[in-house]
Write a structure and sequence with these properties.
Arc Repressor Mutant, subunit A, two-stranded antiparallel ribbon, Beta-Lactamase, six-stranded antiparallel sheet, homodimer, DNA-binding, alpha+beta, 260 residues
Chain lengths: 260, 260
DNA sequence: TGGAATGAGTGCGTATTACGCACAGTTTGT
DNA sequence: ACAAACTGTGCGTAATACGCACTCATTCCA
């Protein structure tokens, strides 16, 4: 048994296993002992400990130990209460700014626009204007493209049919097929680029953020002057943002497509 | 330390406390050690065990140990998946029938009717007809009154205004004020009675069932011939049904108004 | 109705194991 | 670049968690 130098606490481990077994179906000291391969007295003590912490209850009907629904729901509720994701994103935006030096921001989709819901200004004297609360058409911004590119096709088509194409710079994409091509490239890369399509001299990179149901709920990215944010840097940062937004998504319970 | 003969497992207890602390806010071995009053190495081993069971994750951003949102949600999901409460009620109905010998059933509200969604026939040769799927006006049935009596006043008023009063026996209550009086008595007692108001010679007793949000979602009760189900028995069983439906509600996560 | 059987809960002694200490390795900040 | 702080690990020991055996309660069957 000395294969692994106790970095895992046996009795805690057993207790957690017991909790999962009770979740599946209610248990008695007897039944749990059999499933865990321990003495009945040990199983009893485990159940009693779980009981003391309100993780399980005794069913008054038949005295079986059952999972405490309220406890589990209170756990879930405690989590959802903290899932104000614009705020949750702040540390990730901070890391993004630290890595790039540029302004980092988070935006959500609203109709055919994106709205910036969190923003950290760049570190340099020259940086993009703060855009907290700012609204932009989806088709000009990197965050917009990042979101749009990863939505289900039906939803994407619906939104694209509502878009009123108006150029903001001479690089703005205003052709549906060209834009669909850009979205395809975004999906391939995993991050979206705004190459002076919103403002001349400003580039952006962004990647989508998913919630625990794997739905696209936002995008995060950086914006900066094209002089610093060269196309080389855009792609370097893009790969990083893709990774970081995935980390952020996972922290909110999204499935880990790469490892999980 | 020998106050209590270890009916609680210390290390498991500590681990569960740790889990709740991590739920509140992410932790490190250091911070957890301080909060639990143990050595850092112990805190590390606890976190590592929780990690091995996927109850916590390491935040890739700062390497902090954070609650695993997916795990908690999967627990909640596993529970809600089993919360097909008509089925869940079966063992409770079984106990009810065992106690009374009469037909036991569960009904939900639909508009101004109740619909029976689970039913266990009585044990005697003479018993009420099976009523699975049967629909009845709220104002004639005990289950209807049990539900109506405990709804919020606004909802109750709304439903009562929609009721079309039609007598089914000469005991059927068809007067709004009289009915409101009956509902008041039901609230006071904690259980509702149908004293030959639906069919002559048939009595019923029922009490409300609540979900985890403390909302009334159904009522359970027994029905039987008035010859066996005397008024004395009706009240005896009523007290029992009140208790049993509370147990059932609690098993689905409802707040325990009496003890909790 | 009574007697056997099954299972819950508890005291006790011991062998396990979980703990704290000390050290190594790594990262962060100045 | 150096120091400080923290994570993660080996080790010895003392605490403790475990299994055994027992009591008590409940159920089942005659």
């Amino acid at each position: 048994m000395s294969e692994n130098q106790s970095t895992v606490i046996q009795s805690l481990s057993r207790g957690l296993t017991a909790l999962e077994l009770v979740l599946e179906q209610s248990a008695t000291p007897q039944s749990l002992a059999k499933e865990l391969g321990v003495d009945r007295s040990t199983a009893y003590r485990i159940l009693n400990t779980l009981l003391a912490h309100d993780f399980v209850l005794r069913d008054p009907l038949d005295d079986q130990y059952v999972i405490n629904v309220r406890k589990v729901f209170s756990f879930a509720h405690s989590i959802t209460g903290k899932l104000h994701f614009p705020t949750l994103a702040t540390p990730y935006l901070g890391k993004l700014r630290q890595k790039t030096g540029e302004a980092a921001s988070l935006a959500v989709l609203q109709d055919t626009d994106v709205v910036y819901v969190n923003h950290l200004p760049g570190e340099e004297a020259i940086t993009v204007a703060p855009m907290l609360g700012v609204r932009r058409p989806v088709y000009v911004s990197a965050v917009g493209k990042a979101i749009l590119a990863h939505l289900p096709e039906s939803e994407r088509s619906r939104l694209l049919s509502l878009v009123e194409w108006k150029p903001m710079t001479d690089k703005t994409i205003t052709d549906l097929d060209a834009f669909r091509g850009a979205l395809y490239a975004t999906r391939q890369r995993g991050y979206a680029i705004d190459d002076e399509e919103t403002f001349e001299g400003v580039r952006c990179v962004a990647a989508p953020v998913r919630n625990h149901r794997d739905e696209i709920i936002a995008a995060m990215g950086v914006s900066g002057p094209a002089t610093r944010l060269t196309l080389n840097r855009v792609h370097e940062y893009g790969a990083y943002i893709r990774r970081l937004s995935l980390d952020f998504s996972i922290s909110m319970g999204a499935p880990d497509a790469e490892h999980g």
